[in-house]
Amino acid sequence: MATFNVSWQDIEQAHERVKPYIHRTPVLSSESINTIVGAELYFKCENFQKIGAFKARGGINAVFSLPKEQRSRGVVTHSSGNHAQAIALAAKMAGVPAYIVMPKTAPQVKIAAVEGYGAHITLCEPTQASREETSARIQKETGAVFISPYNDFKVIEGQATCAKELLEELPELNTLITPVGGGGLLAGTALTAHYLNDKVEVLAGEPEGANDTYLSMQKGELVRIDAPKSIADGLLATMGDKNFEIIRPLVKQILVVSDSEIIDAMRMIWERMKIVIEPSCAVPFAAILKNKELFEGQKVGVILTGGNIDLGKLPF
C-alpha cells in the first residue's frame, strides 16, 4: 500500500486545529438536478464557508501550524483570490502581517476582500513566473514565511477536512468530485477517501484552457501550461508536485470542460438551488452534466468550492 506525506492522523489534527475558526458547511441536494443528471448529487456548500470559499481551511491550518517565532515574522503567498483571502484572514486572527501577491487580472471583489482583512497587497503580471518572482522578492525583503496556495502539506491537510466532513455525514457516497487547479483540494479529498473508504472513487473537473492536470495524468509526469485562460479564475494555478504525487495514484479521472459548459452549469445551480457560486466552483458539476453516463445511479458528493464572484461581471 502506498504511503503518503499526509497521514489520517495529520488530517484529524488539522480538523481539530481549524474547527474553532471555520463553519461546518451544509450539504444540499436538488431533486430537479438529480432528475436531470440521473444520479443523487450531494453538494458540500463551501460557498458558505468563512471568506466564501474552502480555502479558509488550508490557509488557517497552514498559518496556525507554524511555530510562534516563525509566524511572528508574517506570511507571504500568491493567489488570484480565495487563498489570498484565507491567508489574510488567518494572519489577522493570528495577529501577524500578511503579504499577498495577486495578478492584476484578479476579480476586484477578491482584491477588496483581501484589503478588508488588512493584508499588504502587491499586484503582478498574470503569469505563474511573475507570481513566484514577486513572492520570492517580498519574502526576502520581509523575512515572512512563504505559504504555497496548494503545494504545501499543511494546506493539503486543511483542505482534506472538507471531504472528511462530507464522508462522515454521508458514508454511503460512491463518488467524490472536486475542481482542480493547483491540486490542494483534490489531493486532500483523495487522501480522505483513501483513508476513510477506499472504495469511493475520486474524480475532478478541469477547465479546457487550464488542463495541465489532465495532461499530466495522461503523460505520467507534470506538464506545465504557461498562460492558462479560463472563466474559472480560481483554477489557473499550475499543479504542484506534492499534490501530483497524491493525485496520480488516487484519482480515477480528470474530466475537462469548456468555459461555455462551466457557465451553463453555474447558471443551473443559481437557478435551481438559489445559491451563489463562482465559475471555478461550477466546474465539477459541468463535468457531471457532460459525462452523465459515468455517474448514473450513483450517490455523488460534489464540493462547491466558493461563491466569490464579481456581481458586476456575471457571464449571464
Report the order of strands and helices.
HEHEHHEHEHEHEHEHEHHEHHHE
What Rg, in angstroms, do the CA atoms define? 18 Å
| Strand order of the biggest β-sheet | 1-2-10-7-8-9
The total strand number stands at 10
Domain count, please report it: 2
Question: What structural category characterises the helix and strand content?
Answer: alpha/beta
Question: What is the annotated CATH architecture of the largest domain?
Answer: 3-Layer(aba) Sandwich
Do you know the CATH topology of the largest domain? Rossmann fold
Shape: globular
- In round numbers, the mean pLDDT is 95
Strand content: 15-25%
Would you give an account of this structure?
- The mean pLDDT is 95.
- This protein has a six-stranded mixed sheet, with helices on both faces.
- The termini are far apart.
- It is α/β, with parallel strands linked by helices and 316 residues long.
- Strand 3 (75-78), helix 5 (82-94) and strand 4 form a beta-alpha-beta unit.
- It folds into two domains: 8-54 and 152-313, Rossmann fold (3-Layer(aba) Sandwich), CATH 3.40.50.1100; 56-146, Rossmann fold (3-Layer(aba) Sandwich).
- It has helices at residues 8-18, 31-37, 55-65, 68-71, 82-94, 108-116, 128-142, 153-169, 184-196, 212-219, 241-250, 259-273, 279-290, 292-295, and strands at 27-28, 40-45, 75-78, 98-103, 120-124, 145-146, 175-179, 201-207, 253-257, 299-304.
- It is globular.
- 53% of the residues are buried.
- It is built from 14 helices and ten strands.
- Helix content is 47%, strand content 15%.
- Helix 1 crosses helix 8 (153-169), helix 3 runs parallel beside helix 5 (82-94) and helix 9 packs across helix 11 (241-250).
